[in-house]
Design goal:
alpha+beta, 3 domains, rod-shaped
Amino acid sequence: MSDITPSMSLAINEAIDAKLLDLHTTMVAKVVKVDVAKALCDVQPVLKRKYGDGSVVALPVITNVPIAFYRAGAAFISMPIHAGDYVKLEISERSLDLWLEKGGIIDPEDPRKFNITDAIAYPGVYPKTSPPDGATANDVIIKNATSKITLKPDGTMLLEAGNSIINLMPDGTISVTGTTLAITAPTVTMSGNLVVTGAVTAASVAAGTVGGGAVTQGGMPVANASDLAAHEAEYASHTHGGVQAGGSNTSTPN
């Protein structure tokens, strides 16, 4: 046994250090299991604990950690969290057990403070080796693999889904780029001029109809393509009677 008696200050410092080992505030953890329906996850803290004797030990897996998605009432933004993703853990200064079960303003009924089991997981933190792909200094970007929404400071809004792109510009211009545009609605209303570059095809089943619905202009029926073709042939080959020189009109077509 040592005959050296530690000083009061040394004893106090050692007691504080020992206590601080069990006081947790913020740390990074890796997700090992996720229950998206309950917004809970199991996580493994990534920073190991080193003891005075030199031994280094991993902290235990923390189970049933609530995930703090962006939410206010019924409105929320969820993130597709998977095993292997990183989260930031915020440690509550008091026990969360009863509050997680009941909500409201409660007495925690537990003396523990800053305990590692009272963690809340916030998605978003990653090491420098894995920065977000496509982040910029000025734009707000929401991205999930090949789906992306970009909000630019000039008011431009860009929606991208693979080869489909919708660009909304602050001057009122809207451009849509894709391989096929399908609109399914009982009524499609357009105000203004329609400019088409390329062919316009309509499946017609009867004169004045397209796909079974009436086609009108100014309230009057519009003939279908077959009617127009027949009339064109008729106009090209018809004859008139009573033709004579002078200013008189011809008779009606034969």
